[in-house]
Amino acid sequence: MPDDRSLNAPRRRDALRSAVRVTVAVCAGFYTCRYGMQRPVMSVYALFGVIAFGVLSRMTGSARARSAGVVRALPAALTLTAVGTLLAVHTLTAVLGMVVVGFALTFSAVAGPRVAGPSSGLQLCYILACFPPYAPQQIGDRLAGLALGVGLFAAAERWLLPEKPTRGYRTRLALASATAARLAARLAADRGTGEGTDDRTVDAIADDLSPARLPQGERPAAPSRTSRAYAQAGASARSLLHQLRGLTHTRPDCPDALAAALLEAVADTCRHTAEALRDAAPPRPGAVHEAIVRFQTARRRAVRERPEPDPRFRAAVLAAAESARNVELAARVALRGRGIGLVEPRSLFWYADAPTWWLWARRVRAHLTPRSVLFQNAVRVALGLGAARLVAGLLDLSHGFWVLLAVLTLVRTTVVQTRQAVARALAGTLAGALCAAALLTALGPDSMVYAVLLAPVMLATFTLGPLLGIAWAQAMFTVLVSIVFAQLAPATWQLDEVRLLDVLIGSTVGLLCGLLAWPRGARSELLNAMARLLRECAALVTSVTAEILTGPGRGTPVNGEPASHALVLAQTAYAQYLSEPGSPQLDGDATDWHVALMVGQHALAGSYWIPLYDRPDRAALTEREAHEARRQAGTLSRALTATAAAADGGGPSYDPTEPLPPAGPPAADVPELADLEQWLAVLRNDVHLLREPARRPHGAGPS
């Protein structure tokens, strides 16, 4: 059931639309089966089929996408209903089936939020069928009713009260690329002044690329090549916008035609990338890579002939160009697939030419470990549902279905969240049971009265429940259930007493599972993964700086494999963390962990490109300049290590004891030194962003 939320107008409209679709689909299926065909079993499955996918599932995206997702899930729902019907022959078989189904469906989150969206609804399909009476002769009515209800709901999702399409991640990327193109073009035309830029607009467009600000179903979190590429393009585009915005406030000492030419290539590449993202067509290879090569060649030639006009500005332009190149490459991978071939740097684009089956196998294998939050969630839910089914079977509860439904809807990923949900749910169920008992006593056994009440009560339940919180949702759902079952058989107030008892048993089982099985949820794993990533980045800062200042001439890149592996684990942990309902708010965590992922990408990019540059004579580098570069790198490395230690200890994500290093004196006329200082400046800016509280609350997907 949904968590408490603020009552804003868009949420009220969305809740009302969803409630209307559910109500229309339920009434059409239930009335047809119960009163038109006189098939009560079929009517029950038609009703709960709609509730499974319309209330418990998290189907996201456009109306067409949600409807298609419901239709794709129907075969699995029918299979689980048939399996549950057959395994109900004995409590032990039903329990074992519940454990397997619970684990498999919850663990499906490894495939991303779109695949995992209907998992709770599919679990309900098995739960409903696996309880006594063991009636394999009813399997036809059960499957027919479920198919009817799900089909009606899919039609309602597609055509009833369609809402305006939301901005998907590809649309946000296109807007960010177009904005970057305009900024780069203005910088090129103004020779680096960039006057007239609205920083707040640029920041807002950049922040919109953070996965925390997207609905859960729209986050690029799947193991597919496309999803990985969109995630990387988003992080690179966010960096690019910050870099270009910084350039607009940095006037070069004199007009720089060389930097302007590179900025023109950046603008051209970003413009074509934005067009390709809007049209969903692979962009043609941009000119930015060749422009970077020309820029570096001309830059080295100019250094030998005359001093650079502004080494830092040129280094900043080069860093922005490399970010633009990463955005364009990631967009090509996302829109074209393996056809793009090998992509450098391999530490960032390792997935570009990998087979699809290997990417999925890698994701599944990575999570078959107790350190995976998805594995923890799957075990927790499977044990909870299995235990609930065992208790219901051993106690021979007449409506044991409600025990498992309570576990399914109330168990959260942390024991604190579960305890809060259970307390509110029990209070709501008690209030609803009292109201329903009074209603049943006053109205008596006349089923037609309840048939008239069904539609308005259902509409109110599924409109107000998501808006007012879980207590209201449970109270109104208890009344709704009483109205439904009063139409199937004569009902008295004892029905609500039974439901209250079942919810209490289910809540107790859920609390015990939450207390015993990984009670802290994803936060601890997130902090561990981010701490490891930041420590690897700190090591890269030290080793790359040493390579530039004292290492041999041209050589192989610094080994970034440990940082690359840490980045993959951190990306996964972050996606898991965001999948928990309300995690940032409930944990009191205002840290923008997406910035930590940007730190990893920037560190890896620098570790690949900087040591490959052809370096001029080392004599051009004075001891003072080398000492200053080492000082900045050392201070930044210590800041990253301190931030990692704070995260590892579960404390705040920053260490206030040591300030970040300020920018040093102007770089010498050595391109590599200017690039090194710019790389450190980018990482320093990332750490600033990581230390400051989030400018806005994290957006969270529906729970």
Record field, number of beta strands: 0
Estimate the helix proportion, in percent. Answer: over 70%
Tally of separate helices = 26
- Beta percentage is under 5%
**Parts with pLDDT < 50 across at least 5 consecutive residues:** 1-7, 582-588, 651-657, 694-703
Give the overall form.
elongated
Can you give the mean pLDDT?
79
Radius of gyration: 29 Å
Going by helix content, strand content and strand pairing, the class is mainly alpha
Distance between the termini: 7 Å
SSE sequence, one letter per element: HHHHHHHHHHHHHHHHHHHHHHHHHH
Biggest sheet, open or closed, and with what strands and sense?
none
Textual characterization of the structure:
The protein is mainly alpha-helical and 703 residues long. The protein has helices spanning 9-36, 40-56, 63-87, 91-107, 113-116, 119-129, 139-159, 169-189, 199-207, 225-247, 257-279, 288-305, 311-336, 356-367, 373-394, 401-410, 415-443, 447-468, 470-486, 494-516, 523-550, 561-579, 583-586, 593-609, 623-648, 671-691. The relative contact order is 0.10. Mean pLDDT is 79; it is low at 1-7, 582-588, 651-657 and 694-703.
